[in-house]
Amino acid sequence: MKPLIPDDTTSQALTAQALGGGPDRAREDQSLHDETLTRLRDYIVEGSIAEGGRVPERQLCEMLKISRTPLREALKVLASEGLVELLPNRGARVRPLSEQDLGELFDVMGGLEGLAGRLACEHITDAEIAEIERLHYEMYGFYLHRDMHGYFHVNQLIHQKIVEASRNAALKSAYANFAGRIRRVRYSANFARKRERWGEAMREHETILDALRRRAGSELSDILFKHLRNKRTAAVEHLKTDGMAASEPA
Amino acid sequence: MKPLIPDDTTSQALTAQALGGGPDRAREDQSLHDETLTRLRDYIVEGSIAEGGRVPERQLCEMLKISRTPLREALKVLASEGLVELLPNRGARVRPLSEQDLGELFDVMGGLEGLAGRLACEHITDAEIAEIERLHYEMYGFYLHRDMHGYFHVNQLIHQKIVEASRNAALKSAYANFAGRIRRVRYSANFARKRERWGEAMREHETILDALRRRAGSELSDILFKHLRNKRTAAVEHLKTDGMAASEPA
DNA sequence: CCGATCAAAATTGTACACAATTTATCAGTT
DNA sequence: AACTGATAAATTGTGTACAATTTTGATCGG
């Protein structure tokens, strides 16, 4: 058989354990439950299970080489995180994200990023700003070379840095949670083809950096929300067109 | 890469399930797990267990008249919500909230409320605004009569209405989660004695209502965050002084 | 008398068994 | 042949048993 789940799954941003405010537990003495939780979450976030697909417990148990008890515990947690849906006596399904759901999630992300920016202005060091500037120009390079992949990567890095600079663990956890939920659709749907929006996003990032330099919290908060709102529009638009094709076969 | 999952897309049943820890759900065919989850959460939020207090599973099982399995499932979920802490082989403890934790939570609440206000401006109806106005004046009445209890109650109602008007279920859930975490300390600590802050808060509420009437999203978002930031200062100050006395006997 | 070491009890982590509910299969009837 | 109903299989929900770890308690030595 196949491993089904790679061991060194790059769990980059999703370090924090849920909304808990992250006791950044070392990988050593993780209980079977925690291990299962992390692996299942990554598995789902990566989009390895079809939307709304039924997931028999037995099958997952075999896959993860554990018994049902820790698996079910993990499922309950994932349900509370919003990743799966638990239907009574009918098992767990990967929570389908409607157009509206995605819109809502993006708005919340916008609120959280706005908050992160505002708080970052209170705490960020010059060195951190310099680092973000560096990333910004790197991103600009990707933009010029039309390297979408590199662009997105650095883009996420910048937003992540801002969240870090907020010095707020609770915010960081919540952010990671919502990011994971969105990332699932982002995985199955490639965000390319938004060339016209690209330049606009790049300009928005200029203003973000500017506000950050001036430590203008309220202003930055506003800019970041609107930035995400624009992203939202593009994303929902994308899901609307691409989502159709995916669920078309009928 | 892995089929593994039959593509059975018959899921349309949108159970009002915990989206991020949302405490609103139908009381009908709750599984024992859900029932336990709700009851335990309420129990903890109400402050019935001392901070950091050990909570033997057996004891809780007797109290809730259930076996360990659903209880443990509930504990895992509460841990992911940040209410309790799970120490390996050492059981669950009510998560102690440091001064900093409380500050962080208040800031996140501020961000969420700001977001709620911004979104509310996009969706709120005149009737809803009228309702909030009514509550506002009711609250003002309590203020004039120096009725702290009534004031706080209506105050929470107003903030709740704004969240409702945002028309964002994900936000509502996250808000409920963080509100619960804060409420735990608010219960054990009576927020009285903040007379001087009271008038200021009342004035802030005037501006909130004003911005809401004008549907000035960005402005309202800013006001709401700053409003919560002021609350935060008062609350943290309170915990600093009162928290000492509370954790004395140990 | 106080502290350390080891055994006993209690508590937690996981697996498994059984009951309840849902889903699938298959007659029989129109 | 399609539909309805009953029955069988499978799956989920909950309780309990057992192993592993921690906490408690007692004995021994200083």
Write a concise synopsis of the structure shown.
With 250 residues, the first copy, chain A, is mainly alpha-helical. Helix content of chain A is 67%, strand content 4%. At the A-B interface, β1, α3, β2, α4 and α7 of A face α3, α4, α7 and α9 of B.
Question: In what order do the strands lie side by side in the largest sheet of chain A?
Answer: 1-3-2
Oligomer: homodimer
Structural class of chain A: mainly alpha
Report strand % of chain A.
Answer: under 5%
Most extensive interface, residues per chain? A-B, 62 and 57 residues
- The CATH architecture name of the largest domain in chain A reads Up-down Bundle
| Average pLDDT of chain A | 84
Distance between the termini of chain A: 31 Å
- Helix percent of chain A reads 55-70%
Largest β-sheet summary of chain A = 3 strands, antiparallel
- Radius of gyration of chain A (CA) equals 19 Å
Give the SSE string of chain A: HEHHEEHHHHHH
Low-pLDDT segments, ≥5 res of chain A: 1-27, 245-250
What does this protein look like?
The structure is a homodimer of 250-residue chains. With 250 residues, the first copy, chain A, is mainly α. The first copy, chain A, has 2 domains: 18-94, Orthogonal Bundle (Arc Repressor Mutant, subunit A); 99-246, Up-down Bundle (Four Helix Bundle (Hemerythrin (Met), subunit A)), CATH 1.20.120.530. Chain A contains 9 helices and 3 strands, in the order αβααββαααααα. Chain A has helices spanning 32-45, 57-64, 68-81, 99-123, 126-144, 148-165, 169-188, 195-213, 217-246; strands at residues 54-55, 84-87, 91-94. Chain A has a 3-stranded antiparallel sheet with strand order 1-3-2. In chain A, a hairpin with a 3-residue loop joins strand 2 (84-87) and strand 3 (91-94). In chain A, helix 1 packs across helix 3, helix 4 runs antiparallel to helix 9 (217-246) and helix 8 packs antiparallel against helix 9 (217-246). Chain A is globular, with a radius of gyration of 19 Å. The relative contact order of chain A is 0.14. The model of chain A is unreliable at 1-27 and 245-250 (pLDDT under 50). The first copy, chain A, binds a DNA duplex (30 and 30 nucleotides) through residues 31-33, 56-58, 66-70, 72, 88-91.
